Amino acid sequence: MSLENNGTTNTEMNDNPNNIENNNTGIENKPEEANKTNANGSILGNEEEAKKEVAPIYPEDWREKYAKEDNKKLEILKRYTSPEAALDALFEARKKIQEGSKGVKLPKDATPEQVELWRKENDIPESPDKYNLSLKDGYVIGEEDKPILDKVLETLHKSNIPNSVASEIVNSYNEARKLEEEQEIDRIIEAREQARVELQETWGKEYKNKVTTIENFIEKRFGQEEAAMLFGARLPDGSILGSNTKVLSKLYELASETDPEITLLNTLNNRGTMESINERISEIEKIMRTNESEYYRNQSLQDEYGKLLMGRENLSRRKY
After folding, report:
1. How far is CA 208 from the centre of its chain?
2. What global pTM score does this model have?
3. 91, part of any domain
4. Three-class SS of residue 222?
5. Cα torsion angle, 194, 198, 199, 200, sign
6. Is residue 296 part of a domain?
7. Mean pLDDT by 10 residues, the chain (320 residues)
């Protein structure tokens, strides 16, 4: 068909903006294609809308099916647009119930019934002896601690302290007691070591025999169990009797004066036989004969010789 039949020349078609190609790109400006383009020029349309999940579809009678013939349930379910909304409300209600009345103060004029309910909602027992304590590290409340703990729990209950906080307080008390006991043991060990060093410097080689003399003397007079109690007794300054050098020195003097036989036997390393006594006497008498000056310069040797003679006489009387 000729362009001229329409009364239009090629020049006229080219001059008509409606007939030219769009920006010489070769793509015609079609309205339907433009409609597919969003504000950002994307032909894919609105990406956010494409990502939206399709809401689940439930039967319209889901409320009736769940409530069955319970009209009260049905009335409640009518408040929610879907089972999801009903479940969300359920979990929110549970959260509030679990939180209970936390942060809500008990009225000053509360009735006994209100107090009981409030304590129950806040994990507070009905009485001090009903506390359900969670003790750490296998702690056990001892008989000596029970009166103190009972008083503490009574005070906590008056202040409406819940189980969890009461447990923390008792655990802190137990930890403090444990630390105190450990520190006390360290002090006792340190005091004993200090006494040992001091007595070794004072008694020298006789340290072991004198300590044994004291122990045997006390055990002979009081018994083994009572002797342990005596050595572990506290002095007014808080120190242990068995670690006090002044007390131990006096006890040794007392043992030497009242029971020289014990002193003698311990001097002989607890052998205590007539043969060992005579053997040691012979050794000292040899020193007296060969080195008389050494004997008279050594006061401890003279004391030992005198005790040996006394011990031999005592053993002879007892027919050893």
Report:
1. 42
2. 0.45
3. yes
4. helix
5. positive
6. yes
7. 43 45 45 45 45 64 88 86 84 67 71 89 92 85 87 92 92 88 89 89 83 86 88 84 88 80 58 71 90 87 82 64
